[in-house]
Amino acid sequence: MQAGREIEFRGIAITENGIECLPKWVYGNLIVANNGDCFITRWTRTEVGEYRKITYQVIPETVGQFAGFRDKNGRKIYEGDIDGTDGVNMYVAFENGTYGLKYKKGDRYFDDCINWDQCEIIGNIFENPELLQSAG
Question: DSSP 3-state assignment of 134?
Fold first, then answer.
């Protein structure tokens, strides 16, 4: 039996278990509340071997799903990551049921014919927007 695709989300956390924290990337399962608030949860093992659940409130605009691929360096690829292959920086997006690469927001170009293992992730649209280029 073949295992399914790994489902994982990331986002920039603003609270940890309800307590304000310094913004940081967190990874795990996504929960979206009725009011639009987003949370990422994960289990961690304590020093005494017990497991505890950590819940982070994340900035909704920073949430991205693991695309199920890794770049040429073995790095997981998430929505919002920037690929620097061939000197044309584009970001990972999900459209029409598939992952692909786009120029910066507002541009129409979308390419879903990607050899993901040839890509190289050089940043993301949240921390490195200056890396993106427009379609012309």
Answer: coil
